[in-house]
Amino acid sequence: MIDQIRHYLAQTAPVAEYLADQLLLPLALAGLGSFRTLGLSPHARTNLEMISRFLPVRFETVPDDDSSGTIVRLKAPGS
Prior knowledge:
alpha+beta, 3 helices, three-stranded antiparallel sheet
């Protein structure tokens, strides 16, 4: 547990891996936005797919060079 905390504190991304999946639905409901995370858990990847099936939204995930993590973006409709 302490190793996970040390790993998180050493990173620059504000969102930990297991918090990312909890932020996806509020992001989708907001309609636009993004966040930086240390990475995406398998659960978060499943949530990305499921939310896109229920709501008319599209997510984009790209590597974050600053934190060696991932940027999750909600794409604007039509883009």
